[in-house]
Structure formats: structure tokens, C-alpha cells
Specification:
By secondary structure, the chain is mainly α. The protein has a domain at about 65-170. The protein has helices at about 15-30, 40-55, 60-95, 100-105, 115-135, 135-140, 145-200, 205-210.
């Protein structure tokens, strides 16, 4: 069963979540004695600090996107190299048999320039196989076993980079979900602790009560006073 995508429990940006957690942690440590009857302990505050540190240590979405983009560039470079070698080989074939002949069509190279990565890989395997089987026919026009080995190697490199691209894209999505999950855990615990702080001082200290209010403004909007979320 496919795991349900994580949805952020908070509206603020992730950097704002970290700074808010650090700010509230200071107030919580200051008032820990008064909050003891609300199940707020030094150990629980240490755990909040650890949650914050673990969240900060996770790769950001931007990092994942950049890794995926780098992998995509590498795949495109491998694709371009393999297609260039194929076109050079087919140019030599064309000197003997034009592209309307059965001999030329046997290579199956038509349409590979715009083929999917998977279809291109299989198509180039065929070009190499047919080229080796008919090498004697085109050797006089410059085709060599080395040309076919080069195409085979470039095709293998293409397959490798396609896999690396898929892994990078999958990893970026997974890292985003992991960061969202960690952020939700941090935020939920922060809200629970701040609720304890508000409850402790709601009738005795307006200033301290205010210290525990979380302003959860949407990350995409300018920061303006927002309705308290906790």
C-alpha cells in the first residue's frame, strides 16, 4: 500500500519553524520549574532541542532538487554522446545503403533521436548488434569494430545515468517527505509545550503567557501580525 504523502502541520517557513522552536525553548527552560505540573521536564526540553537539531541536519528540498538537476544534466550529456556516435555510424551505413533500403532499416535507428530513454537504449543495442553482424559490408566506408564498441560503451553509460537520474529524483521526493515528517513532529511537540506555558500563566503573568503564543504566518506571505495558532 502506497504511503500517504506527508502534509505540513504548520504554515510558517521551515527556517521560521527552527527559529521559533529555539526561541520558545529558551522560555520553556526559564520557566521549567513552574511548568513541572504540566509534564514539562528538563528531559522533555532536551528532547525538543534534539528534534530541532535533527530537523536542521536533514537535507533541504533545494539540495534534493539540485542533485536531481545534476543527474539530469549527466543523463542528457550521455544521451547526446551516444546519439552522436550512432549518427556517425549510420552516416557510414548510408554511404552503402540509403535510408530507404531494407539493409539500412535493419539497424532500426529511425526515430531514436526523439525516443524515450528506455527505447533509445534498446534501439542502440540493436544498432550495435546489426553493425557487428554486417561490419564487413561497411568497413570500406570507414566503419570499424571500435566504432561499435564505443557506441556500446556510451549506451551502457546512458543506462547508468538514467538510473542515477531516477534515483536522484526519487531521493529528492523522499527527502522532502522525511523533512516534512520531522518538521511536523517538531511543530506538534512545540505546540504542546507552548500550550502548557500558556496554561501556566494565563491568569498570573500576561507577559509570560504571550511568550508562548506561536504566530504561524504563511511562509509565502509578508510577515504581519497573525491570529495565534497556539
Amino acid at each position: 500500500m502506497k504511503k500517504k504523502a506527508e502534509i505540513a502541520h504548520y504554515n510558517m517557513s521551515q527556517p521560521d519553524l527552527v527559529s521559533t522552536a529555539n526561541e520558545k525553548l529558551g522560555y520553556l527552560r526559564r520557566d521549567v520549574a513552574a511548568l513541572a505540573r504540566y509534564a514539562v521536564t528538563p528531559a522533555r526540553l532536551d528532547a525538543l532541542q534534539a528534534l530541532t537539531a535533527a530537523f536542521v541536519a536533514l537535507p533541504t528540498e533545494t539540495e534534493g532538487v539540485q542533485r536531481a538537476a545534476t543527474a539530469t544534466l549527466a543523463k542528457e550529456a550521455a544521451r547526446t554522446a551516444a546519439l552522436g556516435t550512432m549518427q556517425r555510424i549510420m552516416g557510414m551505413v548510408n554511404l552503402v545503403h540509403n535510408d530507404r533500403t531494407p539493409q539500412y532499416k535493419a539497424f532500426g535507428s529511425s526515430g531514436l533521436n526523439s525516443a524515450s530513454d528506455g527505447d533509445l537504449y534498446l534501439g542502440l543495442v540493436r544498432v550495435v548488434r546489426v553493425g557487428r553482424a554486417t561490419l564487413g559490408t561497411y568497413a570500406a566506408k570507414g566503419l570499424t569494430a571500435t566504432d561499435l564498441s564505443q557506441l556500446e560503451a556510451e549506451n551502457a553509460a546512458l543506462l547508468t545515468t538514467v538510473g542515477e537520474q531516477h534515483d536522484a529524483e526519487s531521493g529528492a521526493g523522499g527527502a522532502t517527505q522525511q523533512r516534512l515528517s520531522a518538521g511536523n513532529t517538531l511543530y506538534d511537540e512545540l505546540v504542546a509545550l507552548c500550550e502548557a506555558g500558556k496554561a501556566a500563566f494565563v491568569q498570573t503573568d500576561v507577559s509570560k503567557h504571550q511568550d508562548y503564543v506561536i504566530y504561524d504566518a504563511p511562509a509565502t506571505e509578508a510577515r504581519v501580525p497573525a491570529k495565534p495558532a497556539a
